[in-house]
Design brief:
- This protein has 104 residues and is mostly helical.
- It has two domains: 37 residues; 53 residues.
- It contains three helices and no strands.
- α2 runs antiparallel to α3.
- The chain is elongated, with a radius of gyration of 24 Å.
- 0% of the residues are buried.
Length: 104
């Protein structure tokens, strides 16, 4: 192996290690620190939206064209978040609808 190739590999491994330490380790550390401070519903919605944002950022920043399977996955995730959000906002039944007298 030539010296240039060996230097390129060392440089690539250094960048890979830096990416692993920053984006993965720091990201999971911040998630772990925020879990006890945020409501569980909000945390789960943020974590579920990560793949959607990854696809969106890849379209905008890298000009990638997502596959049909990826688009179906994005639609499923957005649909699941919408269902969870709307189900949490269901109106409480009124006392008159339950048959209880209004004055009791």
């Amino acid at each position: 192996m030539s010296v240039a190739v060996r230097a390129f590999l060392k440089s690539s491994l250094a960048w890979l290690a830096l990416l692993g330490l920053t984006s993965q380790s720091l990201g999971y550390l911040l998630i772990s620190l925020s879990l006890p401070r945020l409501p569980a519903v909000l945390t789960s919605m943020i974590l579920l939206s990560q793949p959607v944002m990854t696809v969106a950022l890849s379209i905008v920043l890298l000009r990638e064209a997502p596959s049909p399977t990826q688009l179906v996955g994005v639609a499923l995730v957005i649909g699941g978040i919408a269902i969870a959000t709307l189900a949490g906002r269901a109106p409480a039944p009124s006392p008159q609808a339950s048959g209880a007298p209004a004055g009791s």
